[in-house]
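Work Package 3 (structural annotation) set out to generate three-dimensional models for the target panel prioritized at the project kickoff. During this period the team completed the workflow that converts sequence records into discrete structure tokens, so that structures can be stored uniformly alongside our sequence database. As a representative example, we reproduce one entry of 322 residues exactly as it appears in the project archive.
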Amino acid sequence: MSPGSRSAVDRIPAPALFISSGLIQYVGAAVAIGLFAIMPATAVGWWRMAASALVLLAWRRPWRQRWTRGTLGAAVLFGVVLTTMNIGFYIAIDHLPLGTAVAIEFLGPVGVAAVGGRGWCDRLGIVLAAAGVLALTGVTLSGGGGRSVLIGLVAIFVTAVMWAGYILLGRKVATGGDGVNSLAVGMTAGAIVYSPLAFGTTAIVFDDVRYLLALLVIAIASSVIPYALEQQIMRRVTAAQFAIMLSLLPVTATLVGAVVLRQFPGVLDILGVLAICVAIVLSARNPGASDSLDAERVIADRTDAYSDESKNGREPETPAAG
């Protein structure tokens, strides 16, 4: 990127870049939902993860690194958890409104931050997150849907648990060697473990260029563009500032769901989302960390493909993490 283009991006306020990143990311999720009509959500999730694994393998060529049994095992476990998280999210948004799913899944990172915290902010954060989740769950169940809604709720709670595991394992993998190489190996392992999910869909993907292009759009919109924008953002904001912006993600997802998918929230939905947004901010507070992104590392591991994972691949002392 030329100096001139960097200056142009730098002139855009960081919050505007972040909101753009969130909007583009969840538009990618909306496109994925459109593919659920022609193949299962689990298959869409697998294709996205498999494509990301191939890209990372071609880029990093991790076989050139010396691996120990411990580092290889950690990478494989990390990749399986990551793949489970992403496939679970796709199952959830096949059965739940996008905004509701995104808000509930934040229970995972908020819980990690609360368990590791000691102050009143952490306790209040988990209480607000729980209240928001209860509100969203109650509204979702009362709206009908029966078995479909239950499947979505189970899937998103599993996703939240996997997100918590992803954060803990991702930090271990990132500090144990070359994190991006570990990511490439892990995502490959996850794709292999879940490969049965793709059975019967190869012809669908490769026989119609529209579906292949749709998968490409999902990868670019949900991974490449948000990652590129967030790299600009993370060089310009503190942990506290990023936490505030991160709390906009459930709101952004709700907005995209309403505009693109016609999933209009009710009053209790909005209150639940807002409670979780406040919980995100409280859980990411870290006294004395105003000039570092250590607090953000706990809360800001995102759900989407290699945009999130590449951040974990950077060395822990690098300030531009996300």
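The chain has one domain: 15-310.
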